[in-house]
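Record minuted for everyone:
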Amino acid sequence: MSKAEANSTANHSDTQQIAFNQDLCAFIDASPTPFHATAALTQRLDAAGFIALDESEEWSLDVGKNYYVTRNQSSLIAWTQGSAPLVEQGMYMLGSHTDSPCLKVKPQADIYDHNSWRLGVEVYGGALLNPWFDRDLSLAGRVHFKDSAGQRAVAMVDFKCPIATIPSLAIHLDREANKNRSINPQTHLPVLLACGDKDQHQALNELLIQQLNSGEQKEKAISILDHELCFYDTQPAAVIGVKGDFIAASRLDNLLSCYVGVTTLLESAQQADSSWSLLICSDHEEVGSCSAVGAAGPFLQQTLQRLLPNAEDFVRAMSRSVLISTDNAHALHPSHADKMDPNHSPKINGGPVIKVNANQRYASNSETQSMFRAICDDVNVPVQSFVVRSDMGCGSTIGPITAAEIGVKTLDVGMPTYGMHSIRELAGSRDPLWLKTALMRFLSRATK
């Protein structure tokens, strides 16, 4: 362990580390979909006194107060208002995304055949499909319906308990499964809810009405109009390992960053010296970000333009602003070390990772990288680098997209992770609090 690692570990007591990770796990468990993640974020902002704004209304903003706005119930922007003019101070921003790869239910999903009731699904994002088999699955999302007054209404649902599974085919019927198993998303992934003929069980819409009417909304659901539903693994997030080295959970990519971002912003907002800081958590990153609520859409730019209506002031402010895009990074897998560049192989619990790509799949450059290295050095947080092997393709993040949309200096960082895009991912138990420590320093503007 380096000197920086030793000092950083000393700065965080076991009690702090345990409490932070327990709260992280609770946040992830409460956020099975982007809609639920955004609701969980707004609950924390509300509790801290942030003021909710409506995009359709005129805004009247006061210096020293804190605000947030959501779009589509799945993306969120929250910020603190500084005492100095934004055009002079610039905005220090944290970015992450609320969505994760999953199985999304099709509009007409019911499949009745072969003594089973199943639901057809689409694969959302670049999911690692094999781990979805033989898991205890539940269902959550957003439902639009007609209520008892005949009005269109919307509510979130979460069945929470295991209601479904995708059973594997026995090895006896597929002797090559351990050597060459391929998955056909159309035929192999329909999710099993019950056995029996069609007349023996409900349709999905009937199940949703029953679930909605067991909730607390005043007007009860009469008919389902449409839905956006995702299956998810019911196994709770947990700190695991013989020494508690790991956090195991669904959707670590990228709810881990959403959690670190919101806790950092909330703590920063409590500081005496008021400054302009912003958190954006966008939907649809896993499918390219090209939507009204994604990073390639206008949400952030339109919000900032309402703070800076003058075009010249906007450009001046962005020239003084910085964005840190926080997303997960690949960790050196002990069984597949050959998949990494030997000089750029981040380790679990080795600290946050600066992500670099010459072809701008990441937005980091020497200016923003040196800034972050100086920050980490100031607060004794270890820092690592990731560059993909030169003979392999590279993923991307909201970093380069946001940089291109608003012209802001940007850094891509992430938490080292095993099994990215699996139904259950694995990160280090010490890395998240280290990232928060560095991001707190960033928002304090102590290092330029």
Observations:
- Residues 27 and 40 are 7 Å apart (CA to CA).
- The first helix runs from residue 3 to 11.
- The domain at 3-99+250-443 is CATH 3.40.630.10 (Aminopeptidase).
